Amino acid sequence: MEAQRLLTIDDLLAWPGDERVELIDGEIVQRPMSRFEHGQAQTALIGQSFPLVTQRQPGGWWIVPEISVRYNEHHCPSHDLAGWRKERLPERPAGVMTVLPDWVCEILSPGHEGKDTVTHFLRLQRAGVPFYWIVSPEDRALIAYALDDGGYRALYTAEGPDETAAKVRIPPFEAIEIDLSLLFGGLG
After folding, report:
1. Are 152 and 145 in contact (CB under 8 A)?
2. In this structure, how many other beta carbons lie within 10 angstroms of the beta carbon of residue 133?
3. Considering only the top CATH level, what class is 35-183?
4. What are the sequence ranges of the domains in the chain?
């Protein structure tokens, strides 16, 4: 029996066609179709973090959607949102990121929850990404994790209409107030 060859970054970069794919543990995986709820949550976080994006160091961030990050030769996911502190990365980056992010946010898509809640969770924890958020538009839920002694610890959780109507300050973005109702499609 022949062992399956793990695909690499080069295979990902050479992938034919226009379909949305990413490299997960040596396998090229198709990304889910974009849905309105997913885009709404992504837009709400980008819009509310804009003061941090326009701020220079100290305190400024690079925050981008749909960004490919190379963790190793066989793992290059495309994160829904990722951010880098400008203090650590002062010049605007380009291309596939090779510098690990300071924050990643994944927005769950039906049928693909395991990738974000298990695969990415464990991979980012091992890589040492300091903050990882998981947003579930369908459940109106947010869990924010921080790396603590090599493992993720939940810093903040909100679920359901009562908890997700709040305006909160969640690490690493204590400098801004995040309106969770906007994140989950409310008018604010």
Report:
1. yes
2. 23
3. alpha beta
4. 35-183
